[in-house]
Amino acid sequence: MNLAIRKLTAIIIVMFLTLMMAVTYIQFIRAPQLNADTRNVRTLWREYGTDRGPIIVANQPIVTSEPHDDEYKYLRTYHQPELYAPLTGYFSTTFNSMTGLEREENSVLGGSDSALFSQRIEQLITGKQPKGGAVALTIDPVIQQTAWDALGDHRGAVVAIEPGTGKILAAVSKPSYDPNLLATRDSTLANESWTAMNNDDQQPLVNRAFGGKLYPPGSVFKIVTAAAMIEKLGLNADSVVEAPFSYTPPGTTHEIFNAYQQQCGDGSGQVTLATAFAESCNTPFAIGGVNVGAEPLVETAREFGFDQDFTIPLQVMASKFPFPEDTAALAMDSFGQRDVEVSPLAMALIGATVANGGVMMKPYIVAQTLTADLALLSETQPTHYGTPIKPSTAAILRSMMIGVVNNGTGTKAGLSNVQIAGKTGTAETGKEGGDHSWFVGFDAVDQPRIALAVVVEEGGSGSQVAAPIAREIFASAVNRD
Amino acid sequence: MSVISTRPARSGRAQELGLLSVALISVLSAWVLTYYGVNSANPDQALPDNFFTFGGAAAGVLLLCHLLIRRLAPYADPILFPASVMLTGLGLVMIYRIDFQLVARGASPDARGQLILAIGGLILMVGTLAFLRDHRRLRRVTYISLIVGLSLLLLPMIPGLGVEVYGAQLWISIAGFSFQPAELSKIFLAVFFAGYLVAQRDNLSLAGPKFLGIHFPRLRHSLPILLAWLAGMGILALERDFGTALLFFGLFVAMLYVATERTSWIIIGGLLSTAGVYLIVQVMPHIQARFTIWLNAFDQDVYDAQYGSYQLVQGWFGMASGGLFGTGLGEGSPTNSFAANSDFIIASFGEELGLVGLLGILSLYAIIVTRAMKTGIALRDGFGKLLAAGLGFAIALQCFVVVGGITRVIPLTGLAMPFLAKGGSALLTNFIIIGILIRMSDSARRPFVPSSVSLSTINTGELPANLIADEDDDLESSASTEAEPHSAEDSLATTAVPRITDGGSR
């Protein structure tokens, strides 16, 4: 019988090995998949139960995890909730969701990033509670606050970029919301807040800065058209262009006028490109766009970043310039109406590219990621994103944009001590009195500090509404130290 | 030939005491860790309430048991007792840990009851040693065991006595105490199988018709396995207890194999159980649901269904969240799984002690089982060999059915993990089994002292050749499956001649 017992023992060993393999399969091989399962409430608890790292602006935490007496142990707290909501997003246990940087930087904030591996090992050995890393932003709190205040009660957005690096200095979207109301553990309050925000016709949850909704650019798009005219048609600031009182594109009966049906320049029907730009005439750019042709114009817009999604690391919706279906569409698109739609970030990026001599830097918002002990994990390095225009073209555009501020539609954006360059825009929305007010510009010095885009929803004239807002922001950025 | 032992006799009592200390220290440490874990590492006091009272009492009880084993079974295997203490202790710690969440939910705690049962188990173990001075005496009650075992099995079906729990009728309730008689009947049926098979082994191992190179027994000799199969299916059908049916049928087939050394029995057993399970699945929706859960646990429909895979999948989530090293005792969320301190206690351990801890626990079971098998090999009587192997296999199979169910190696059944899981019937039964195993290991390891005539007077050289060949039969007969006609005669002949292996100490 002994041989049979030995064989039976072998069978038993096989049984135990089978169990051990099955357990290994669950706890090791398949564990990542199981932990990622949406039905696994433990993952939520762990995710929401970690001491998430802070989000930092200029050495001040704007989002922290505060100890809280419940299942999750910590409560995410937003210290300047409305000001930074478009950036931070929210981290909600009630809705089991995170948005904004809370989501995009979750691996660092939640402590699961592979870069935090050594920290996790240390925590495992010392038995300390796992702690997330910190994320430091490029935001300049003074500019951010000024932009917020300057927008006042308007709906709209401001995006400011440092032209030489692509750092995002400010990103404001108004109206905003309070993420604390969604992060709360009081699920009734969270649900009520969500319903209220979602039903609010002011749309506080829409992130206007990064393309949560796209706007027609109106005349600020003329920067792109002018760039194409300079590069593709060989024009410069002093080139004389056709500027009739009205223009009917070939093959249509649709008549294009200048704003408020005004004359352009002296009414002779011919002006310099600089004058057309400074006075923001429509007919010269409609004709210019048609002369450039659909394909080259679309190509120029694409080089400026149209039709491309990108992340900063927040998702930015691509600005749109669909291929014009006919000449009339091309003519309308050329001065930023009809099918062209942009995000404030994209327009700020165009301004920054002109300011930076034609080199487009990739915009970014995370300056550094840090460990829980605030040791440096990673630092974002400025990267080239493209060279949509030649340096000479950038110089011409710059001079024309200076002209806009010095003796054109943008005088209200000018500062007495620093030269400002810019372009106003008044985008028709087809609604009476519902024009969006735009300003895109930068400080025209050797090393420009700031390029920005301001959009005020249904604000009216760009020169009257957006330009003064831009002026305040410029003042806060350059009149310092 | 197994009679001759030149190894110096080692009682192993010092090892047992050492291992017992290791087990006690491990369990007490686990208790303290749990205490810190559930209090988020900031408890009100340095040690749990009554730490020294309970720790001291446990040390005293275990020392007393050790001393009694020293006296009652001085040559007992030194590992069986400490390993079972370790497992029971870890189970107690986990039940105590789950209590924190049960109390928070307004349920009553379980740890104290289980602790009392554990002490009861130790008493039964020592009592078994005291009353059962020679395991061969169990052979005398072969048929009584059958009757008792079957009666116990059928008890839950008596109206007014049986209680249906989670769709299976395997509990009885007497005066407020509930008991799962199937656990206890395990011992009685193992005793019956051992007694029956040791008497019938030669009949059962007779050559029958040969098919595909395998000898099949004659139909009249197949009758017992068919009856056992029918009994298993009967339990399954009447009490809807898949686990117990599997356990008994597996136990019977394994013991039949050990007794006859015929692989054909295993094949027949496998075929019969496959056929039985197939038939049952066709007619019983309860079992059918188990199969659906087993095969498609992660399907959303199955997961959402009432009595669906939700509980099983929660167990998996817990184990996955434990990962390699676990969340630490008291720091996971094991009560997310259903029956976290009984049916799913393995998942709870997986979550809080991690893969490493769970492999350790499984190894402890493997050690207990292999010690039982080793005892079976070392024993000199066929009945003891069969009983030790059977009891060892029963523990192994129960682990396999429980852990295999949780890990989806096989469909989930309602068996309890030996020693670890909350549940009195199982704990008491398992300590009786350990008592029997200790008793048997004592006689297996005891140095052979001839009681009357010195065996050296028997010179094997003078024995008839066929008798010497038969002595080798224990080791090699299964290798000679090509039964030549005369070997069958040999087997028949040996039944008439006293066998030294079985009869040496008779």
UniProtKB/TrEMBL annotation, chain A:
Pfam families noted in UniProt: PBP_dimer_2, Transpeptidase
Domain Penicillin binding protein A dimerisation: 52-135
Domain of life: Bacteria
Annotated ranges, domain Penicillin-binding protein transpeptidase: 156-474
PANTHER family, sorted: PENICILLIN-BINDING PROTEIN 4B (PTHR30627:SF24), PEPTIDOGLYCAN D,D-TRANSPEPTIDASE (PTHR30627)
Protein name: Penicillin-binding protein
Species assigned in the record: Arcanobacterium phocisimile
Organism phylogeny: Bacteria, Bacillati, Actinomycetota, Actinomycetes, Actinomycetales
Automatic annotation (TrEMBL), chain B:
Transmembrane segments: 17-38, 50-69, 76-95, 115-132, 141-158, 170-198, 219-236, 242-258, 265-284, 353-374, 386-407, 419-438
Top-rank lineage group of the source organism: Bacteria
Pfam families: FTSW_RODA_SPOVE
The entry's keywords: Cell shape, Membrane, Transmembrane, Transmembrane helix
Membrane topology label: Multi-pass membrane protein
Region span, Disordered: 473-506
InterPro entries: FtsW/RodA
Keyword Iron recorded: no
Subcellular location: Membrane
The name this protein goes by in its record: FtsW/RodA/SpoVE family cell cycle protein
Annotated source species: Arcanobacterium phocisimile
